[in-house]
Amino acid sequence: MIYDAAIVGAGPAGLFAAYELVKNAGGGLSVVVLDKGYMARQRHCPLAKVGKCVCVPCHVTHGVGGAGLFSSGIINLRPDIGGDLHELIGSWSVAMDIINYVDDVFVKFGAPVDRVFEPSGPTFSDYQRSLAKVGAQLVPIRQRHIGTDGSIRVIENFTSYLMEAGVRFMVGTAVEHVSKDGGLFRLKTRRGDVEARTVLMAPGRAGAEWFRDEARRIGVELNPNPLDVGVRVEVPKYVMDPLTDLYMDPKVIMYTRSHDDKVRTFCVNPGGFVVMENYDDRTVGVNGETYLDRKSSNTNFALLTSIRLTDPLEDTIEYGKSIARLATKLGGGRPIIQRLGDLEDGRRSTWDRIRRSIVEPTLKFVTPGDIGMALPHRVVDNLLEFLNKVDNVVPGLASKYTLLYAPEIKYYSMRAVVNKLMETTVEGIFAAGDGAGLSRGINVAAATGVIAAWGILVKLGKDINNELFNKIKQ
Ligand SMILES: Cc1cc2nc3c(=O)[nH]c(=O)nc-3n(C[C@H](O)[C@H](O)[C@H](O)COP(=O)(O)OP(=O)(O)OC[C@H]3O[C@@H](n4cnc5c(N)ncnc54)[C@H](O)[C@@H]3O)c2cc1C
Questions:
Q1: pTM
Q2: FRET pair for 306, CA 20 to 30 Å: which of 27, 102, 265, 465?
Q3: Which atom of ligand 1 is nearest to the CA of 73?
Q4: Selection from 237, 224, 167 nearest residue 200 by Cα
Q5: What digits encode the pLDDT tens for the residues 119-170?
Q6: The domain at 2-111+146-223+414-473 falls in which architecture?
């Protein structure tokens, strides 16, 4: 059988693309979705709860619903959080409309109608004003909270709808290679080849390396994305409560005076734990998690500087890896921990000094050391400037006891060069979502899937009777 469209990856990007294809083309289109992982109800991983998933493929990142199926499922209702959709399509208002459309579809499949949060009111405005005074922005984000249980239910409803509409799901099926054979595409899998007229590559962050290698092999042009480098900050929970009481994951952004670099908070975990991450290349890093059933008395969050490189080294992934290698070496295979006061005084931390702190580290498998020796000077400058300025608004943030863990590095996939309808430089191959470097969150991943579907329909010569599509076309 020759499919009209083959979609690689059943995360938000792939699912929304399949939805939009069948919705616009009625029953007249054959669509197959291939995923390395399994259906939502088959995905389970007790170790995921403690951040030590060892299943292959990992149930946390692979399978229908994509990465984050087991997370708290927060849909950020802005096009510039979770990606830069407005830049991709060249219009803020159309990008906002598409994000709202994605939200409507989530609600259609069972996302809770009443769980929308929008920080507002005099306290929020006061914080915005005080942060503006020190050169920082507190970003107001409307968010829908689907919740972990809700996410699984929504994805099951979504999948049932697609299956009833005739979409075929091939799970447990990794696509090894994509090749062009005459006017058709051939997707090689261990369960046999799949042929299709068009292909959407939406393999997510876990499939980013696969995407990069395939893209290079078949001639899809790629550009490097910026890299985010920094530390995970840990403070007593009461220090951050005023901000986390405003909304769950407060986003504070500052362009620093020292280097005019963007520094931002990310992944704030009230009452959470700092966790260690091991990468395939034997480097280590840190991240943060919150659990429903156990809480710490601290709050942690990532404080990251965005780095974009130009000639001669554009490869930010390689740059990030070299920082991770240095930090891992200095930490003897463990993340480095340092008190802010020790970093400012130019000396390493010791267990003795950390024990005399008011913050007890939630991650103990660390080496007290000197982050100043592991991270680039400008990254350290940026984070010190941020903490000291924001301390005027959130007292205690820049206390000498504040704990810093390094390295926290967010690698973003190489970004596929795409047109407004997400078609890559190889005709008939479309890209969407995190794996193609086009998003960093559920909202924008889904939106790029919707747009790619429109591109596929145009390629297949189908009419699209859709107001949003008409807006993007203009
Ligand atoms: C723990 C966690 C919590 C998160 N929480 C949130 C949140 O609350 N809000 C938010 O906005 N974002 C969150 N994110 C990020 C969010 O999950 C991603 O941005 C989003 O899922 C990206 O969607 P995607 O469709 O691009 O890719 P993914 O969701 O990653 O899906 C890609 C799919 O492709 C499949 N695949 C990969 N390679 C192949 C191949 N070769 N052949 C076949 N299949 C393949 C994978 O198995 C996977 O199922 C979270 C992520 C994680 C890991």
A1: 0.87
A2: 102
A3: 8
A4: 167
A5: 888 899 999 999 999 999 999 999 898 877 788 889 999 999 999 999 999 9
A6: 3-Layer(bba) Sandwich (3.50)
